[in-house]
Amino acid sequence: MMQKIVAGIDIGGTNTVFGLVDEKGKLLLKESIVTEHFPIPEDLVAVVCEHIKIAVSKFSENYNLVGVGIGAPNGNYFKGTIEFAPNLKWKGIVPLAKLFEERLNVKTVLTNDANAAAIGEMVFGAAKGMKNFIFVTLGTGLGSGFVANGEMIYGHDGFAGELGHVIMFHDGRQCGCGRKGCLETYCSATGIKRTYSDLLMSNHEKVEVQDKVADAKFIFDRAKSGDRCAVEAFNYTGNILGLALANSVAYTSPEAIFLFGGLAQAGDFIFKPTKESFEKNLLNIYKNKIKILPSQLKENDAAILGAASLIWKELE
Q1: pLDDT tens digits for 33-43?
Q2: DSSP string for residues in the chain
Q3: Which residues does residue 275 pair with via DSSP β-bridges, in sequence order?
Q4: Cα-only R_g, the chain
Q5: What is the pLDDT of residue 211?
Q6: With a threshold of 0.90, does the pTM exceed it?
Q7: How many of the other CB atoms lie within 10 Å of CB of 316?
């Protein structure tokens, strides 16, 4: 009997990763190419499709490719397009889902990378069986996906759920979106690095904070060693994140909130202050009802599994 497999593709500003995933979430293939080497999107599509065809042919006796799921920055679920993504060389609106469908002749679904990861959590991770939850990615920026009544919230135009661009401080830190004070400028790997650097300078500490050294992991390691500025940076970050999450609860009343990404790997250093701030700022009717949990998706495979989950969810 032929088993169904799905191609999962994650388009990143630096790399594009893709693979084949079966219905149980087993990753049968994983490959990567450099996105920046393909200034024309059609060229990247051609290369990825050729790799997928070759891989599927190796499994042809037992597997049947039934779809392609794509996670991408500024991905529009309704239109299957990438629209004005600031971190990609591709400008304007790119009909990416259509380009893949034309070459592989299978159903193709596209959404933004955080939404894809949220569905991955629902299909293969800790949100399995949950119908109401929020998924937050704490990476270079802050991405999010909101699931209510068992369905991803896309809004009328496909771009709902941008928690990272809720303004937390009027006239605050400059954000890549062009505005100031957005949540992701404080609660992300980039944000905590800025916070740590500011604390070091204000405390006249002489610690190396160059880009190649002071990433989120470096700050985590410093916190574990007792660096008070690093601990304070996590507390500051968690305090803001907890407030933002408490506010977000009022919109969808989720059962749980999942944190994913490099910053979430800091464990109690980020979870403890986030949970404390969260409970302190919740409306009374929500208090002690909502869990803040780490994602169960493997960081290295989450992008592909999340993208593939788009198809498995559609096939339900």
Answers
A1: 999 999 999 99
A2: -PEEEEEEEEE-SSEEEEEEEETT--EEEEEEEEGGG-SSHHHHHHHHHHHHHHHHHHTTTTEEEEEEEEEETTEETTTTEEES-TTSS--SEE-HHHHHHHHH-SEEEEEEHHHHHHHHHHHHSTTTT-SSEEEEEESSSEEEEEEETTEE--TTTS----GGGSB-STT-SB-TTS-BSBGGGTSSHHHHHHHHHHHHHHTT------TTT-SHHHHHHHHHTT-HHHHHHHHHHHHHHHHHHHHHHHHH--SEEEEESGGGGGTHHHHHHHHHHHHHHS-GGGTTT-EEEE--S-TTTHHHHHHHHHHHHHH-
A3: none
A4: 20
A5: 47
A6: yes
A7: 7
Nearest CA to 248 among 289, 293, 272, 281?
281
Least reliable range by pLDDT among 88-92, 112-116, 202-206, 237-241: 202-206
Amino acid at 158: G
Q: What residues pair up with 32 in beta bridges, in sequence order?
A: 17
Structure tokens at 61: 């006796």
